[in-house]
Design a protein that fits this description.
By secondary structure, this protein is an alpha/beta fold. It is about 30% helix and about 30% strand. It folds into 2 domains: about 220 residues, Spore Coat Polysaccharide Biosynthesis Protein SpsA, Chain A, CATH 3.90.550.10; about 160 residues, 60s Ribosomal Protein L30, Chain: A (2-Layer Sandwich). The chain has 11 helices and 16 strands. Strand 6 and strand 7 form a beta hairpin. Helix 2 crosses helix 4. The longest helix has 14 residues. The mean pLDDT is about 90. The structure holds magnesium ion.
Length: about 375
């Protein structure tokens, strides 16, 4: 079965932003449109996608390595005009066509499946949610009718149609009949439009509250965690640099750079969380640019790469292990310097000092080590 998805994204919908149509607003990890397209692009039963964009809007972030072909068309004045133009771009091979609002970015694979099956069986079927609330018809502030709750459903998308049914529906719309969704046109054209159980999570993002809730929901799905570890030998005659702070002591870490274990562990933690490799890949020993490099600068460069990949650092927690000297007094300055390199507030960076209780090389004062854990938050798609 050849299934096409038309993603309707041509609406002006500027209620949520003065200049940007709402479906092009970022909700974390991409715009509503990008998330909606991705849901269909990742679905194994979707053969092609037609995205209907506002006039003059360039498609961005709508290409994927695998999956169905994606065609972009320009929409019309009303939603029905836009869907009609989208329909003109649908392959003649298509058996079932789904129409979906870009402003419903949380559509699930299961709901897409159910809609395809019901549309193929019945000719027309839409996702709709049974009303939990009693519905009143109101006139001039006074209730004039109470509608039995059992008979009320709230229409969602996707709305699915056999190709011939949507062709007749689009033709009716072009003949001058107006409707706010394709199901209404199909009803007017005389088809029985069936209902499949919608999904309460498949919300349409319309208000500022919807937008906040969507971002919170995406936030939980777009956090990434990474760990880092580093160890250097301690030798005489080297400065002891930890977290960008030089602490008076007779030994310091041996290394190609300043041997700052806190910065090195932190660098690996943020690179690891973003799946960007490790410190050795970005700042190899073989590259003379990093000889005696200031590791706080390497951390700042790693943070820049992580931001470029679309992430902000939510927090970083470091444990520095060395037998002597005590680092407690230098901790506030370490936090400030590391936070500065990461481009975040010092309240997001924790540094703890520990000894190794005299055990092993660290305990004998022959080495210093650090462990780091970083949490990243995806705030935009990778550039
Ligand atoms: Mg190192």
């Amino acid at each position: 079965m050849h299934v096409t998805a038309i993603i309707a994204a041509a609406g002006a919908g500027r209620r949520l932003g003065a200049t940007t149509p709402k479906q092009l607003i970022d909700i974390g990890g991409g715009t509503m449109l990008q998330h909606s397209v991705k849901a269909f692009a990742a679905h194994p039963r979707i053969s092609e996608i037609v995205v209907v964009l506002p006039d003059g809007q360039a498609p961005s972030g709508l290409t994927f390595d695998t999956g169905p072909s994606i065609r972009i068309v320009t929409g019309g004045d009303r939603r029905q005009d836009s869907v009609a133009r989208g329909f003109d771009a649908v392959s003649p091979d298509s058996d079932v066509v789904l129409v979906h609002d870009a402003a419903r970015p949380f559509v699930t694979a299961a709901l897409i499946d159910k809609t395809i099956d019901a549309a193929a069986r019945h000719g027309a079927a839409i996702a709709a949610l049974a009303s939990k609330d009693t519905i009143k018809r109101v006139d001039g502030g006074v209730i004039v009718d109470t509608i039995p709750r059992e008979s009320v459903y709230l229409a969602q998308t996707p709305q699915g149609f056999r190709r011939d049914v949507l062709a007749a529906t689009v033709a009716l719309g072009r003949s001058g009949v107006e409707a706010t969704d394709e199901a209404a046109l199909a009803e007017r054209a005389g088809y029985h439009v069936h209902v499949v159980d919608g999904d309460s999570g498949n919300v349409k993002i319309t208000t500022e509250d919807d937008l906040r809730a969507a971002r919170a929901r995406m936030g939980a799905a777009t956090q990434r965690i990474g760990t880092g570890y580093d160890l250097h030998r301690l030798v005489e005659g080297r400065p002891l640099v930890i977290g960008g702070v030089t602490i008076p002591f007779d030994k310091g870490p041996l290394g190609h750079s300043d041997g700052d274990v806190a910065c090195h562990a932190a660098t690996d933690a943020i690179l690891g969380a973003a799946c960007l490799g490790d410190i050795g890949r970005h700042f190899p020993d073989s590259d003379t640019r990093w000889k005696n490099a200031d590791s706080i600068g390497l951390l700042a460069e790693a943070a820049r790469l992580v931001r470029e990949a679309g992430y902000d650092v939510s927090n970083l927690d470091l444990t520095v292990i060395l037998e002597r000297p005590k680092v407690k007094d230098a901790v506030p300055e370490m936090r400030t310097r590391i936070a500065g390199a990461l481009g975040v507030g010092a309240d997001r960076v924790s540094v703890k000092g520990k000894t190794n209780e005299g055990v092993d090389a660290i305990g004998r004062g022959e080495a210093i080590a650090a462990h780091a854990v970083a949490l990243l938050q995806q705030v935009r798609p990778a550039r």
